[in-house]
Specification:
Oligomer: single chain
Largest sheet: 2 strands, antiparallel
Order of helices and strands: HHHHHHEEHHHHHHHHH
Shape: globular
Number of strands: 2
Low-confidence stretches: none
Structural class: mainly alpha
Amino acid sequence: MIDALLSTPLDRLSAKLLGPAEFDFALPPGEPSVIAPDSVSWRVFANPVSMYIGGMAAVLLELGEPRVRHGVWDHSSFRRDPAGRLRRTGMAAMVTVYGARSSFEAMAARVRRMHGRITGTTPEGLAYSAEDPELLLWVQVTAAYGFLEAYHAYVRPIGAAQRDRYYAEAEAGAALYGVQQPPLSQGAVDAVFARMQPTLEPSPILGELLDILRTAPILPLPLRPMQRVAVRAAVDLVPPSLRRQLGLAGQPRPRPGERALLKALAQLAERTHLPSSPAAQALQRMGLSSDRHGRTAA
């Protein structure tokens, strides 16, 4: 009964966070996605609560790298329009997994053209380019990591075999973004983190980012207090050694009651039918029936 009452509000929240109204995942009819509906990725990306938390964790990790940090902070609308920037980033993630292949290819081409214009030098004198293979890889890996770890922590555990499958599923999409040799297993992801860790550093920008994520009008007004709780959960997903290295060790982490609340919300979203979600629309596009989670029905 409670699930039925909350279905419509959750569906609206999913539409707000995971897919702007101007993109129709139900078109063109019959066209498949780059990633198959029976994938681990389809399940992970369908949950609006864990995607929101994981996306913030990914941004914290991305901006720990100084070249990525200045590429984003100096060349994007994040400070001016954080809610819009997060929605556009969320839309890109949804199109990658659920969009028709032709739609995703067109979007990825636009992103690569935009990246070609983003170059600069950090205050410390490090040159950067958004087309740098190392930086493209770091952004791709941290995003995949954040989404998976949030789902694992707040929805349901993901075992070793499914983790490897999830990371391998990203290969085709990552290639279209220009990512060379993306990691195809949990072990390969761990190796990327180990290789990149020496380049990561604290910055006042990370503190500014956290303030923005806590206070910007991202969630609907009645849910706005939950932003601070979700930010604490995102910080908690950053590996402990990297929290210390990035100067985040003193940031508050979720209290037991807050963690339980987030789990309850994420698990409610997992079992609630979300007809406006990108996953449900994509299955409609491909003429597939779905269970109430927006996955292919058995």
